[in-house]
Design goal:
alpha+beta; Elongation Factor Tu (Ef-tu), domain 3; seven-stranded antiparallel beta sheet; two-stranded parallel sheet; 11 helices; 54% helix
Length: 308
């Protein structure tokens, strides 16, 4: 059950998952199912380990529990447990560390789990190979996107008030629309990392993002922008991802509600609608924005709007 679940949660974790076409939901909307599937897998592992150890202990067959196949199982189980601890303890406070841990543990599990049970279920190795293959195919596809859009692409970075950073890239994916998101790679800031950000504006010749600085990549990017305002750096993108409805064609009235930095999504959607609505359109847009420090945040957003 744990091994079969590995395939399912791998499908849910892919950025280019086939499930997105079957469900009409992008990968981030499927992520809660990925988390639930992961917790269920850890539960299967724990029940399996406890019952197995208890059964062979009662039979006085301790030698079985230290055989090579069982040692592989212990490694896979420990990796699952570390993944679980990282998911509940690191994901919100140190996402980059969580991501690296999560990825490394997945690779170890996908290797050691079939080694643990291959004598009892020889076809189990095919399940592991399938899960590893679809994960590898997704990585190759994302890597090809980055290689394609790195050619002739540059990012102009500008610091904004209240720890904001504006990025404008010269090349934009053909399907990019405000409200969706893409993964941005700027090797000068992080050579081996790409991070997702909401698209604020997209044309054939530019892609604009507004990023709030917190920690890790976003903080390093903002600090670099403060020291080098207007700097032009080599960059690339992977995406777009997400499924934003076309409100211009489907709605007579749109109400957008945002809290804090969530306005980066709703502002992009609103501005894109305003550009596309005809002068005779009767569509109305209500924008509700809740912030903790109204004056400071309004100042930052108004500065950003002045660029249009």
């Amino acid at each position: 059950m744990a091994l079969l679940n590995m395939t399912f949660i791998t499908l849910l974790a892919l950025k280019n998952t086939p499930l997105a076409y079957l469900t009409a939901y992008s990968y981030e909307r499927l992520n809660p199912l990925h988390q639930i599937g992961g917790y269920a897998t850890v539960a299967y592992m724990f029940v399996h380990m406890v019952t197995l150890v208890q059964a062979f202990t009662l039979k006085n067959n301790i030698a079985f529990l230290v055989e090579q196949d069982q040692r592989y199982g212990y490694v896979a189980g420990i990796c699952m447990f570390i993944t679980f601890i990282a998911a509940i303890g690191l994901r919100r406070i140190r996402y980059e560390l969580f991501y690296v841990t999560h990825l490394l543990m997945f690779l170890l599990i996908i290797v050691f789990l079939p080694l643990h049970i291959h004598h009892h279920a020889e076809k189990a190795v095919y399940i592991s190979i399938f899960a590893a293959s679809i994960w590898g195919a997704d990585r190759l596809l994302r890597g090809s996107h980055l290689l394609w859009y790195v050619h002739g692409n540059r990012a102009t970075i500008t610091p904004l008030p209240n720890k904001g950073t504006r990025i404008v890239l010269k090349r934009s994916p053909s399907r990019a629309v405000p409200g969706n998101h893409c993964f941005v790679w700027i090797p000068k800031i992080r050579l081996l990392e790409s991070h997702p950000f909401t698209i604020v504006s997209a044309t054939k010749t530019s892609l604009e993002l507004v990023i709030a600085a917190y920690d890790g990549f976003t903080n390093d990017l903002h600090q670099y922008a403060v020291k080098n305002p207007g700097a032009v750096l080599r960059a690339s993108v992977d995406g777009p991802y997400g499924a934003t409805p076309d409100f211009v064609k489907t709605a007579d009235k749109v109400i957008l509600i945002a809290g804090g930095s969530g306005a980066s999504f709703t502002f992009g959607v609103a501005l894109d609608m305003l550009r596309r609505l005809s002068e005779s359109s009767q569509t109305t847009i209500d924008f509700v924005w809740s912030v903790k420090d109204h004056c400071k945040l309004i100042g930052g957003i108004l500065h950003w709007q002045d660029n249009y």
